[in-house]
Amino acid sequence: MKIRECFARKIAGNRFLRNSSSIVLFAIMYNRPVMGQHSRVPVQRNPFPSTIQFAPSSSGVPKEQQEQLPVVGRQQQSIQDIINGGFSNFWIYNFSGDGTRNLLEYAVSKGMFIDYMTSGFEGFGRYAPPSTSVYAPQYAAEVKKRIDSGLAPIKNVKHIYSVFPFVDEPFHAGPESFDTSVYAKARFRDIYGYPMPAALDSVRNDPRQWLDLLNFQSNTFRDGWTQVYHAMKNAVPGAKIVMTHDSHNTFGGGVKSNSRIAMDDVFHWGGNFADVLAYDMYPYMTFDYRYGAPGKLRKPRISQMHYTIAQLRNVATTYGKELGFWVGTYCDNWFSRFKGPERKSQYWFEQEVSYTAIAQGANYLISTSNYNGSNLPIDTLHWENYSAGMKLIQKAGAGLLKAPKLKSNACFLFPRTQYLQLQEEYFNVGLSFELFLRAFGELDIIHEEQITDDKLNGYKVLVLADVKLLPLEVARHIEAFVKKGGVVIADCVPQMDAHKQPLQVMPQLFGVSRAGTDRIVQQGQWVPFTMLPPKLSFPPEETTTEEIKSDEIKGTVFGAACNFRVTSPRIADITTATPLLTMHSGAPALLRSQAGKGKAYLLGFCLQDTYFQTWKNEDSAGRRQLRELVANIFRDAAVYPHIHSSNPDIEASVRASKKEAYVFIINHESGEPGTLVQLENPGFRIGKITDIGTGQPVAFSNHNGRVAFSILAPIGITRLLRVSPVL
Fold first, then answer.
1. Among candidates 372, 381, 399, 438, which has minimal Cα distance to 626?
2. In whole numbers, what is the pLDDT of the chain averaged over residues?
């Protein structure tokens, strides 16, 4: 009988085993001579930090059941197996019992570090106003009391690596969580020069006051966390302070969702209240919060993760913080309503998702849990694949930590003011982000608040997707960026300023007098339960069927033939732009405008709608041509990526230091196992590429510094390559 089947029967027939600690059970679960069964190897020096929950030994069980507990030596071997599985840290939520402390001391003696989870010390959250305003003089003292009490359990614990002192996944669930205290009102008047509006609805038709009130109330969280952070650094000066961010409510997906209104976003909050910004999303185990029809057909599946983790990477990079990532696992109780044969069969997903996170810049992995220790994968194949992946990451170890993700030559705008003023989700646009990422090969996020001059943080290309509104000063900086030689690619022309007044700068830049901005309105989020009937969360108040408008492109541009359908065409009235491609209706499909030394390209249709329809209609030929059209725009602009994968479903991403680089090859469920990877200018002349897993060299060609190599990565396979300079 297979090991996992034996274990399943053992668990099913024993109530004590079902409820016991995952650490205690680990050795029973995998009762075979592997993973360090005959060795006591400590955690390597300078490991890649990866933490998994340590659960306390069971208490309050009958004596006859206690006798079934493994002996201390077996418990210690379980810890050793975790170490040998590539994990360097334990995270703790409950310190009850001397047995727990003794085992932790053993883990620490083997070089493991400890991460401590708390219930939050800030004194405010999603659903109600703070009991004490963060602007009240007594707030700091109350924070200190909560910290002193909350940190008491770890007073004598050694090797504390990090502490999580904030409410998990914070956001405002609605106006009922606003701070309307006398202290907040006084602060608002000091900042804006007029009294705080009595209610949000009272200023809905006043764009200035609407924006001021939403920004102020969002900032109350940041202003409280900053005080908590300074108190935490005094209390545990050697520990890293971690903030866990939600994956949709604060990344453009909050409106008409859990938070109901658009107001919070991670870049606006910043990063000066934490050392590590941890990203929380489980793209296999649950759903990725797309609105409407795209939520029912999650293809390309990884798009929303790429889009949102790029946002948090931007915050971490800008503020000099580390990027963390929560890894969802196929474990005992976590997300049990989404489990089933399909997810069980996808034994590779823990490794695939964790590698995607590291490829996108994460330097710290945290495995999820139900806070009772049930976070080890319950399926043998899931654990073996996950731990094999972590052991491979540890082979890179400190070198990988010193190699940040390479900055892209192109960036994608997050338009905060539009998000707040129009109260429209800006989350399905992750489909457009994924299209550009796959077409070009790399893509970063730039936040509207970062555009303060004509340099655009050194990027060569700015992408505007479904951007209808921009502050005037931001628009002027973009115009100056283009005139100095920059490139803008858009599928929508911003024609409103911050207060929803006409904006002329951007139409002039794109060489049009006006341009359509319509797209399909998607509402509600599809929840694909497996143990319960699936449902639509936050459905629209009135059920409406929106017409799907389409057109067809037939023509040649940049030497390539185009023949595919577009969805949501956007009619533009041309003034100075040059039409490069037209649709069957005669409307322009692609315009190019010269402004100074730079160029502005305008696509005449909604990219996210068009891209989604190619997946819905299984139109692989149209999807390929759409991707090639976007890629050819970059070539026409003479801007090239550091890395590109010819197979769009196999991700290639590069992290690099001055001494070496690391290339991740990740199959995102592609039936075609091979890809051609092009790598250019990682910061040094490339002399050698080595597959870290096999130790074998990877053959490559080199044409004027642009390296190319073919590599296989069948479905479920991830590969990690080390790139070394010429000696």
1. 438
2. 90
Where are the strands (E) in 109-211, listed by range? 113-117, 160-164
Whole-angstrom distance, CA of residue 676 vs CA of residue 608: 26
Separation CA 71–CA 127 (nearest Å):
46
Residue 571 pLDDT > 50: yes
Q: Exposure of 632 by Cβ count < 10 A (0-12 exposed, 13-18 middle, 19+ buried)?
A: middle
Residue owning tokens 């929840």: 527
Which residues neighbour 715 within 8 Å (Cβ) at sequence distance 6 or greater? 348, 667, 669, 670, 671, 673
Q: Quick one: residue 521, left, alpha or beta (phi over 0 = left, psi -120 to 50 = alpha)?
A: beta
What is the Cα 118 distance to its own chain's centre?
Answer: 23
Residue 499, φ and ψ in degrees, nearest 5: -110, 25
Going by C-alpha positions, the residue among 622, 624, 516 that lies closest to residue 568 is 516
Amino acid at 502: P
Q: Which residue would you say has higher pLDDT here, 659 or 17? A: 659
CB 257 within 8 A of CB 302: no
Token code pair at residue 383: 């654990």
Average pLDDT value for residue range 360-386: 85
β-strand partners of 643: 679
E strand spans, 135-239: 160-164
Side chain identity at 238, as an amino acid letter?
G
Q: Where are the alpha helices (DSSP H) in 588-619?
A: 607-616
Query: Is-contact 579 587, C-beta < 8 A?
Result: no
Pair 429, 605: CB distance under 8 Å? no
Rounded distance between C-alpha atoms, residue 204 and residue 215, angstroms: 14
Is the pLDDT higher at 473 or at 104?
473
pLDDT one-digit tens code per residue, 282-312: 888 889 999 999 999 999 989 999 999 999 9
Q: Find residue 280's DSSP bridge partners.
A: 326
pLDDT tens per residue across span 702-714:
998 899 999 999 9
| Chain segment 396-425, per-residue pLDDT in tens | 988 999 999 999 999 999 999 999 999 999
Among the listed residues 564, 664, 573, 675, the one whose alpha carbon sits nearest the alpha carbon of residue 624: 564
**pLDDT category of residue 597 using cuts at 50, 70 and 90:** very high
Exposure class string for 533-550: b at 16+ Cβ within 10 A, else e: eeeeeeeeeeeeeeeebb
What φ, ψ does residue 373 adopt, rounded to 5°?
Answer: 90, 0
Beta bridge partners of 162: 115, 240
Q: Across-strand partners of 277? A: 243, 323
- pLDDT score for 60: 40
The Cα–Cα gap between 197 and 210 comes to: 9
Sign of CA dihedral 616, 618, 620, 622: negative
What is residue 77's predicted lDDT score, i.e. its pLDDT?
Answer: 82
In 3D space, the residue among 312, 301, 326, 302 whose CA is nearest the CA of residue 361 turns out to be: 312
**What residues contact 622, with CB distance under 8 A and at least 6 apart?**
564, 565, 614
User: In the numeric block, which tokens belong to residue 169?
Assistant: 């996944």
Q: Do strands 89-92 and 50-53 pair parallel, antiparallel, or not at all (unpaired)?
A: parallel
